[in-house]
User: What shape does this take?
Amino acid sequence: MGEPESTGSLVKYYCTAGNGMERFLIAEVKKKLAAEDVCQIAGKVLFSSSVAINRVSELKAAERLFLLLRRDSPVHLSAHTGPAKAASVLQSRVLGDVAQWTGAAVTWSRLQGELSVRRATGEKEQEEEEEEEEGGSEEGREEELSRRTCGVKAQRLKRKRDEEEEEEQRPERKTGDTTDDHGTRPNRTKPEPSVLAPPTFRVSCKCTGPLTRYFSTQEVSRVIGGGLSRVLGWKADLKNPQLEVNVSLSDDHLLLGFPLTRLPLANRSYMKTTGLRSTVAWALAAMAHIQPGSRVLDPMCGVGTVLIEAAQEHEAVCFLGVDNDDGQLQRANENVAFAELPHRIQLLKASSMMLPLHSSSVDAVVCDLPFGRKFSTKTNMAANLPLILAEMERVLRVGGTLVLLLTPQLSCLLKRLLAQKDAGATCNQGAEPPTGKPRRPSPPPSSTEQQTDPVLGGVKPPRTQETDSALQYGAPPPRCSMEHQETLRVSLGAIDGLLHKYVKTDS
Ligand SMILES: C[S@@+](CC[C@H](N)C(=O)[O-])C[C@H]1O[C@@H](n2cnc3c(N)ncnc32)[C@H](O)[C@@H]1O
Assistant: This one.
């Protein structure tokens, strides 16, 4: 990735992030956006950046992106304040300096303009590319057409649908005075910034702490909305507003902002069927420290979310996804085609308990182990975890990274298992075969299986019969070569997941 390109104007943003994702987002904004003044409050990361809005809108660890209007100290009301006084205190604290609101609306409008220019440019480039390709040979044209039929076209349709929905939300703009009071200077090389005709707006409010003793969320929205209409002349429109005003009031802060995209950043335009939460899949891959030229395996890839997130981030890397379920593999294939990544992501039907790969043949293993109802599986995870772990360990090269996403229960089990293996290693010292290889043999190679794979070189084709049940009784290798690096808790919505990172040592 090159240096982030600066537009010369520093804009203040904040993003929402799932629980546990804040640290990934902080690292990402610093790395990709050369962000300044980065700070975190519960579930949000605030920062300033002068990098173009299109780069900001490509953040992967964020849920939603907002233009920051103001972060302030919390609104406190004394226990004896009556309702009328409370409403007036709330209104004046939230409204604050009126010029800040108009300045922020101008910046918001300019950023919306830049986002739509980017969309239009992207579409034009795509059309030109296609026209060029259509001028090529008959054979090439056919091949390209069939590739694109399930990829680009579908993707463009999806993007278009999303954009049309966004377009409906955008305010009418007129050009004119370009002064921006929001502490930002308009960029002369970009389309002219615009001044909003008084926009229609709606207030979205999240209120926690003592304020909830005085007001319901709807009452807070009404009080603030009334103030904005009166002071700024903005018109409230609850159904189809041009501008959404986000207000977050808590014990800890008062935070005001305008969303910059209607759809969350976490909705990926390149995914057809979604699996694991995209931000968490991205974080899982980010923890694996994937380097150019690496070979990366997901031995339980499902619809391919982790692989696609990783492949979007790392260009010169080859990926292999394994799953034992035909339906999941079909969806993964469709997703990979839709994201236009079939040249870098290969998919294979096999069991993660008998991986058709040579020992020490991959640089990183990333895996979201199945749990819950959504991914109900024939594999008994608790019973088979030792075997699955042993296979991952076997195929990983020394120095390679293993990152697993587990439920709290499986996480405990894994820790116990590794502790046992450590203890076992001490007891079994000297009992290893002279080769130092694990006791359980690798999948027996047959001459017909020894084909070289275009992606992973040493990969063998899948075995024809599932051997899960027979393997249930295989003992895990007695040595523990996985060194624990870190464990992080992230929210998966209804439940939490634990991200475990290990590095394979040569012990
Ligand atoms: C939690 S899901 C993975 C979801 C994936 N991260 C995604 O976003 O789609 C776990 C996957 O493991 C697969 N699976 C279960 N047992 C398996 C086994 N023994 N070998 C290979 N895959 C297995 C299931 O078919 C399922 O697709």
Summary: The two ends are 35 Å apart (CA to CA). The mean pLDDT is 80. DSSP finds 13 helices and 17 strands in the chain. The first strand starts at residue 6 and ends at 16.
